[in-house]
Structures are given as C-alpha cells and as structure tokens.
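Example: Biopolymer transport protein ExbD.
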Amino acid sequence: MIRMRHNDETPNEVNDINVTPFIDVVLVLLIIFMVAAPLSTVDIPVNLPGSTEKTTPAPTNPVFLTLKTDQSLALGEDKITKDQLATALATATKGNKNEPIFLRADKKVDYESLINVMDQLRSAGYLKIALVNLAKEGDAQ
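Written out as structure tokens, the predicted fold is:
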C-alpha cells in the first residue's frame, strides 16, 4: 500500500544538484594524478644515437668552435680560453652575430660543459649554433 500526503497540493521539485558523485570522481582523479606524477619524472640513463640525416652543405668559410675533453676550446685551429671566446668570435665572424657557429664537442665531453659553452655563445649574442656530428657509416651522401 502506498501512502501519499495530501496536505500539500503542489509537489515540490528538488532544484539542487547532487554534487556527491562529482566530488567522488574528482577525489579519485586527484589520487590517480598524485600517484602517476612521480612516476613520470624517473631518471633514465640515455645513450643518444648519431644522426642518419643527410648532411647539409657547409658555408664557404664556416666558424668551427671545438670543445675538447680537457674542457679547452679551439676556434678553428687556434686554441682560446673561455675568457677570449667573445672577442675571438667577433674577430672570426667580423662582428656578424647572425653567422652560424658550428660547435664540435668530443664524445666524452659531459653535457654540462657543452651547455656552458652554448650559454657563453648565447650571452655573446650568437644565437645560431649548429652542433656537428659524424655521419653513420650506412648514411648515403
């Protein structure tokens, strides 16, 4: 038997949204992201491969900057210090900051040293830096 109240003639509709399921879903997503976020920052050792892309032709008088394993620098064939880098580049490029600098680094040079040299180039105003590598043997030229 179903009882209905007849004291109120108009039935009232509930106009409020039930937010409890929404809050449950948001809390579950929050927990998932809290668990997944640290997993995405795992340090993995990387052995970067060489390039198999066809080499591009070099300009007629390229400016080569070489970083050796002992952290010494050479601009072309001339050895320079890190303090002399900006003035030696200005001389080699004749003051043209848009000329690309071809940066060569020994395979055993650590990543931090390479980035430090690139930062010095950037602070000297040279923004076009090309990294030089050896083509793999199977590369068709």
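Residues 30 and 36 are 10 Å apart (CA to CA).
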